[in-house]
Amino acid sequence: MWSAFANPHKFLKFSAVAAPLFYGAGMLCILWGLWQGLWIVPKDDYQGGDIMRVMFIHVPAAWLAMVSYSGLAVASFVWFIWRHELADIAAKAIAPLGAVWTALCLATGSIWGKPTWGTWWQWDDARMMSVLFLLFLFLGYMALRASMDSRQKAARAGAILAMVGAVNVPLIKFSVDLFTSLHQPASVITADGPKMAAVYLTPLLISGLGHALLFGGLVMTHMRTEIRERRIARLTAQALEG
Amino acid sequence: MNAAPIWAAFRQAFAEAWAGGAGALLPLGFLGGAAVLVPLGIGSDTETLKAVGPGIIWVSLALSSLVTLERIFQADVEDGTLDLWLQTGAPMAAVAAAKTLAHWLAAGLPLALASPLLALMFQAQASLDLIAHLGLYALGSLAFFFWGGVGAALSATVRRGGLLISIIALPLYVPTAIFGSLAMTGGIGSDGAPMLLAASTLFACAVAPYAMAAALRLAAD
Amino acid sequence: MNAAPIWAAFRQAFAEAWAGGAGALLPLGFLGGAAVLVPLGIGSDTETLKAVGPGIIWVSLALSSLVTLERIFQADVEDGTLDLWLQTGAPMAAVAAAKTLAHWLAAGLPLALASPLLALMFQAQASLDLIAHLGLYALGSLAFFFWGGVGAALSATVRRGGLLISIIALPLYVPTAIFGSLAMTGGIGSDGAPMLLAASTLFACAVAPYAMAAALRLAAD
Amino acid sequence: MTVSTAPLLSASGLAILRGERVLFRGIGLTLQPGEAIVLRGANGAGKTTLLRMLAGLTRPEAGEIARPAAHHWIGHKEGIKPQETPRIHLALWAKAWGSSASIADILDQLALTRAADVPGRYLSAGQRRRTAFARLLLEARPLWLLDEPYTALDAAGKTMLDQVISGHLRTGGAIIASMHDAAGFPVTAEVTL
Amino acid sequence: MTVSTAPLLSASGLAILRGERVLFRGIGLTLQPGEAIVLRGANGAGKTTLLRMLAGLTRPEAGEIARPAAHHWIGHKEGIKPQETPRIHLALWAKAWGSSASIADILDQLALTRAADVPGRYLSAGQRRRTAFARLLLEARPLWLLDEPYTALDAAGKTMLDQVISGHLRTGGAIIASMHDAAGFPVTAEVTL
Ligand code: HEM
Ligand SMILES: Nc1ncnc2c1ncn2[C@@H]1O[C@H](COP(=O)(O)OP(=O)(O)OP(=O)(O)O)[C@@H](O)[C@H]1O
Ligand SMILES: Nc1ncnc2c1ncn2[C@@H]1O[C@H](COP(=O)(O)OP(=O)(O)OP(=O)(O)O)[C@@H](O)[C@H]1O
Ligand SMILES: [Mg+2]
Ligand SMILES: [Mg+2]
């Protein structure tokens, strides 16, 4: 399977089947998680009452924001060291999607924060700020790529930024432990395993899986488009050369 | 490793930093200007001013490091100096670090040194704390300059890339800004903050030069 | 007066302003970045934030106009474009005004348009006032760009004159900043403030172009 | 053309200081339609400075310049923005000068068709020079001030430029050019600094 | 010198894309001590790009470059800072390269004595070129890569440069230079792009 990710041709074949599967399975998981979250699980008054149901979007979105940036950094690293074109294509595909999920995390967090903490936004909160800047990093990555004149240079510049920006990910993850924050500390992904009640935990994990699958499917679709675009550019160049 | 080219890079950058007019006086002017404009907008309530003072100094440091750095590497690309540095045989990361350090000495450190004065302008009580803060500002601004250098190197081929630099560099500033203000406000959990600030600066000094070197090679291509 | 060269200067400057990457998105990023760093330093007390919000927006506008303007005229000197503009036969003051206006449209106005959003981030109450303030920010930033243009033109031959610009331009910004924040806070004596702000902007638009033209002629000499 | 026409340019007693030192003094020249003056002088003699003075860009320390005719100026720096392609550059100046010349034809004449849409930042040295010379053809002006016009041009480019200049001189134009090589067009006089 | 020496530079199969277009491909060359190769080609053919590639500044799309010898590179841009005078510039690079050559002598040899203390921003075009060439004499390096070396030089400057280059070739150095004019030094081969 891994070889399929190294070779564009094999990747196209693999993703033609995998992307729809990912969409389908992802949507199923998300819908099931939402159904559980919105109608089945009991509300938790300590977490703001019914508004806590936004958790089933907020937490998966937060996870994906961090995972997608890590993916961007890893893909950039792979491209930088081994020059696998597919790694660059993956990085380019991840950035806008990562930005969307990060924005989703911020939006749902704010919506949840207004009733529970009494504020949409807390400026000196390290967690919120670091997630906001993660969004900035994604946007900066895209702006930087867009301002370069050739694909090769865009890839190199983007890779440098993505690798350097990876400092932010641990900061996000551990910000709640390092600083006083309004935000609760991690209760799912912790060193001693999950501490959340199972009623919440199962739908949350299923939702998380669903978001990951949907994200993966979208990344594959973006990559397919990009591979085809690069092919067209190459063929056009060859045709012009005569 | 032969230190001569690195030392030469440092000297050239330092001369360049001072050449554009009155050297360190200018960043001071910039900081002073910001310090004057802020209370104008805010009003002169003593309590408010005291509360915002340190924050404003941090922000001024961050912004003026951006303004200073915008041209460093871009100028090198435009006048052909970068080609020469890339071919000295010295590790480019060391050259980039030397240049950044020179610009920090010329423009960043004077700002940090001026910070107690500014704090007083913001109605802070004169105390030994101000001197301690000076050290924090100096540390933090060093990290700003290194991360800013990465942004500057990345956008060196893009004319008027100054604003692109901001977008790239600001997220990199965040850890430093967070630890720095935490160390200053001295709230709960701030015991380790000066150490964390130092660590984040050290990290910047260790990682940023390699990123700069890669970005500069790209800019020459 | 033949308007063709002036219109051409406007178009060229506008294209230049957008060329460096993603155009108006970038100054927005700058302003956003500044707005974000400030509270990091200040803390998040709602009352304090509300008090400093407008001031911070003014300062960010001023600083980002400086960052934008630093390179305008310096680039023209370096690439020889200034020689061409000085010889079009059109009044240089009009050309300079057209260029400044273009840069304001590309970088200043978007900032002003984003100000209500920023004000909300600073815990301001959503109200029609924010729209009125948008107008004040737009007016004020226009004055900032014109005065900043004078500073940029004066320091156009000095490489890395960016900080020199700040020193020259910041004092010129003060009246605008005073009237602007007065108009916004609506304290005693603030009835006439919007008029005074408009007057100071008008004054900048009327006087600055001639100063710019003279400074540019000097830069080419 | 022995009819005494008004000179397109006349200057007398020009002098300039550079860094406490007199760079040149007492320079005078007169240019009639159809004439070509070549400026000669060692590196640093002041050819560029004199040309800028004649173009009205630099203020002489002493002396008089009368320039009743419109002029074109092409210096060491071409005046092309990094984001401007040759086509956009010419369109801009055509607009500014109110010229209606065909830009496609001019690009063709200067063999810039291939580079017509490459941003200024990526143009080769010769392509930049050619773009600057293309401005000469945008609008007919009697007086051309050219600083080292052959710089960076290939053989074909030099021949092309010589033809353009010769044509300009034949139709009553005049030029002053600084040069280190032999000129490929009829030269009326040489001025040595 | 028929003893087979190791080449100072050898390259094969070089190719590069510029803006989706192949600028050149399949370029190869070998340079032995004492040899001079002149690059020819129309404006925009890719001479500068090839030289930058040989200097290690630009990454080739395909092909191999082996450059065992140290080299000097003089491009279109001289690498002089606006605040640097020729004297300071040379002192800086002497320091960086660990050279102990006499800077006063080199300035003298390039006829830069008068301009030795003028900041880079005010140097004339030829003075800037001469300052760049002065770097060649700071440190002896076998391989010189020169992009249009005659640009902006006056007649005396060209003669001086020809002598410097000929001396370099005689003592076992080698050069690759892009040029539009005839070379004033013995040329081993011409490569046309
Ligand atoms: C804009 C504001 C917010 C941001 C940027 C944010 C960000 C994040 C991030 C990055 C995570 C992942 C943490 C990890 O896996 O270690 C997370 C998880 C979580 N957030 Fe938020 N959040 C915000 C607001 C809120 C609010 C208002 C609440 C509820 C009061 C909340 C409740 C949670 C919960 C329960 C988790 C799961 C943590 C766990 O169990 O591991 N968040 N959030
Ligand atoms: N501020 C200054 N201080 C000292 N000398 C200066 C200053 N500004 C200019 N110069 C000198 O004035 C002269 C300017 O000459 P200019 O550029 O006109 O020469 P040129 O004849 O065009 O030379 P080239 O053939 O090299 O282009 C140079 O010799 C330069 O060193
Ligand atoms: N991004 C780009 N898009 C399209 N074309 C490009 C791009 N970058 C460079 N080029 C082209 O690549 C070529 C670069 O040529 P180079 O500067 O090497 O030429 P040269 O042989 O040195 O020419 P000259 O004699 O004019 O100095 C030019 O034709 C230029 O137009
Ligand atoms: Mg000259
Ligand atoms: Mg070339």
TrEMBL record, chain A:
Its main location: membrane. It is a multi-pass membrane protein. Coiled coil: none annotated. The chain crosses the membrane at residues 12-35, 55-82, 94-114, 126-144, 156-176, 196-221. It comes from the Bacteria. It is found in: Cell inner membrane; Membrane. GO terms for molecular function: heme binding; heme transmembrane transporter activity. Keywords: Cell inner membrane, Cell membrane, Cytochrome c-type biogenesis, Membrane, Transmembrane, Transmembrane helix, Transport. One of its GO terms (biological process) is cytochrome complex assembly. GO terms for cellular component: plasma membrane. Residues 9-182 form the Cytochrome c assembly protein domain. Belongs to the CcmC/CycZ/HelC family. Required for the export of heme to the periplasm for the biogenesis of c-type cytochromes. This is Heme exporter protein C. It comes from Hyphomonas hirschiana VP5.
From TrEMBL, chains B, C:
It is a multi-pass membrane protein. The keyword Membrane applies. InterPro entries: Cyt_c_biogenesis_CcmB (IPR003544), Cyt_c_CcmB_bac (IPR026031). Keywords: Cell inner membrane, Cell membrane, Cytochrome c-type biogenesis, Membrane, Transmembrane, Transmembrane helix, Transport. The chain crosses the membrane at residues 25-43, 55-73, 101-122, 134-156, 162-184, 196-220. One of its GO terms (biological process) is cytochrome complex assembly. The keyword Membrane applies. It is found in: Cell inner membrane. GO terms for cellular component: plasma membrane. Pfam families: CcmB. GO terms for molecular function: heme transmembrane transporter activity. PANTHER family: CYTOCHROME C BIOGENESIS B-RELATED, HEME EXPORTER PROTEIN B. NCBIfam families: ccmB. Belongs to the CcmB/CycW/HelB family. Required for the export of heme to the periplasm for the biogenesis of c-type cytochromes. This is Heme exporter protein B.
